[in-house]
Structures are given as structure tokens and as C-alpha cells.
């Protein structure tokens, strides 16, 4: 960007956008459900876990920092375990401990943990950064879901289990950056797994949020203005959590293999 453009950008008038959203009153839609939410200490994972607990679910969140995860779990009123989704060897031992913590078999796995390094363009991507995002956003969730299914098959009593992956609208656009590539793979994985496991009573769906207010995106709820979105705003994590409740509940028992976008149609890329 030229010096003149930088100066013009710096002095560009600020626009402020806030959102007034409607959240339904909790009605115990997830009563009796045992749920794991990975990456549940912040961002979308935190709000999904909080909402699931409010809906009567028995929730267990995971995080890498035990102190922080314990504090958040106490705030939400749920269980917690430390888990790094890049440590694949820990998955086999994780689920028996999670079942013990929650008091029974796991009904819902929310594969939420993920990272983005915001490289800007392909020429800024490093091998280390590429590998880190592939491992956290794709490899880890893939093998965690695999272990969830393996343990499910070994259960004597089988429930109507559900897996929810966290995709992104970035997975629906052509993209040269690792984050978008991993989310495109998650979209494909969701549909492939859904087709494979539907006859065994397991539903597999994904959420594909648009830009959402969080530490990772840098957007704050006191100003959600986002010029590149069709709605001209970023979205609130509570909005996404509301949709997640629907996907996890028995209300959506007829839905599998779907990628629900929560971005006001931004992925359609019309001329707004």
C-alpha cells in the first residue's frame, strides 16, 4: 500500500455497528445429553459450552491451560479436562476419563478447537505455520472424531450420537491460506462421515460461521462494523451458539451431512 493510501486509510471516518439479537429462553433442549466441547475456554467454544449447559446438557470443556480451563469451567458450571488436539496419542485415554467425569457415554462431540495465523497471502506462509494449522484444525479433529466413533462402537448401549465440526465460511471460498484449506477439508469430511455413519444412528454436521467477534478475529461487540460482509457487520458468538444448540438437539434428528452457515449469506458472494 502506498504512503498516500496509508494516510487516507488512517484518516478514514470510523463507522460503528452494533447488533440487537434475539436469544431464545433456555428450555432444556439438551437435558440428559453428555457433551464435549474442545477449545471451550474462549471464543465460540466458550459460548457454545455456556449455552449447552444452560440448555440442561452435561458439558465438559477442554483446553490446554489447566488453570484457565478450570476457571472457565467453574464459571460455566461444567466439567473440564486438559487436552491438546495436536497430541493424537492422548485421544484413546481421553474418552474413558471424560465418560467418568460426565457419568456416562458421550452423546455429542463439538470439534471446535482451531487456530488461524492470518498470514494475509500465500507468500507469508511458513512451513511451521502451515503444519500447525493443519494439525490443529484438521488432523486433530479428524482423529478425535475417529476415536469418538471407535469408542461409540464399543458401547453396549448406543444412543443417537452427534458430531459437530467447526468449519468456516472460509471453507466455502477458494483460498490459498492454510486456515481456509483446513476448513474446506472439514466441509468435505463432514459430508463424507455423515454418509458413512448415518445407518448407525450417528449424525455429523458442521457450522460455518462468518467473521465473529472474538479474540482471534479482533472484532469487539461494541463495534461489529465489517465492510467486506454483506450485512456490514461481524456476528456475535451467541448467535452461532444458538444454531449449535439446534444442531445438537433432537429437534434436528432428520439433519445430517449439513454445513450450516451463520453469515447472512456472505458465502454467496453476490454484488452487495
UniProtKB/TrEMBL annotation:
Q: Which CDD domains match?
A: SDR_c
Annotated GO molecular function terms are: oxidoreductase activity, acting on the CH-OH group of donors, NAD or NADP as acceptor; quinone binding
BP GO annotations? fatty acid biosynthetic process
Q: Which UniProt keywords apply?
A: Oxidoreductase
Report the superkingdom from the record: Bacteria
Keyword presence, Oxidoreductase: yes
InterPro entries per UniProt: NAD(P)-bd_dom_sf, SDR_fam
Key word Cell membrane present in the record? no
- Pfam families from the entry? adh_short_C2 (PF13561)
Q: Which family does it belong to?
A: Belongs to the short-chain dehydrogenases/reductases (SDR) family.
Can you say what this protein is called? Short-chain dehydrogenase
Q: What organism is this sequence from?
A: Phocaeicola vulgatus
Amino acid at each position: 500500500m502506498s504512503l498516500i493510501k496509508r494516510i487516507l486509510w488512517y484518516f478514514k471516518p470510523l463507522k460503528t455497528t452494533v447488533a440487537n439479537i434475539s436469544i431464545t429462553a433456555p428450555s432444556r433442549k439438551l437435558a440428559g445429553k453428555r457433551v464435549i466441547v474442545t477449545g471451550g475456554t474462549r471464543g465460540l467454544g466458550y459460548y457454545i459450552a455456556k449455552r449447552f449447559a444452560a440448555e440442561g446438557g452435561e458439558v465438559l470443556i477442554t483446553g490446554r491451560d489447566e488453570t484457565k480451563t478450570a476457571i472457565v469451567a467453574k464459571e460455566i458450571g461444567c466439567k473440564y479436562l486438559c487436552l491438546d488436539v495436536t497430541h493424537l496419542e492422548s485421544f484413546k485415554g481421553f474418552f474413558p476419563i471424560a465418560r467418568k467425569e460426565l457419568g456416562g457415554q458421550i452423546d455429542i462431540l463439538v470439534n471446535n478447537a482451531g487456530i488461524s495465523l492470518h498470514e494475509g497471502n500465500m507468500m507469508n506462509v511458513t512451513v511451521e505455520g502451515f503444519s500447525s494449522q493443519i494439525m490443529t484444525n484438521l488432523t486433530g479433529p479428524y482423529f478425535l472424531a475417529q476415536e469418538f466413533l471407535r469408542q461409540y462402537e464399543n458401547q453396549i448401549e448406543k444412543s443417537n450420537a452427534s458430531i459437530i465440526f467447526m468449519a468456516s465460511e472460509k471453507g466455502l471460498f477458494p483460498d490459498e491460506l492454510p486456515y481456509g484449506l483446513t476448513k474446506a477439508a472439514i466441509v468435505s469430511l463432514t459430508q463424507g462421515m455423515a454418509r458413512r455413519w448415518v445407518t448407525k444412528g450417528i449424525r455429523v454436521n458442521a457450522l460455518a460461521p462468518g467473521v465473529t467477534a472474538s479474540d482471534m478475529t479482533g472484532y469487539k461487540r461494541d463495534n461489529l462494523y465489517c465492510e467486506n460482509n454483506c450485512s456490514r457487520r461481524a456476528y456475535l458468538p451467541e448467535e452461532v451458539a444458538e444454531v449449535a444448540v439446534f444442531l445438537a438437539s433432537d429437534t434436528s434428528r432428520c439433519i445430517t451431512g449439513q454445513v450450516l452457515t451463520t453469515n447472512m449469506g456472505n458465502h454467496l458472494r453476490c454484488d452487495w
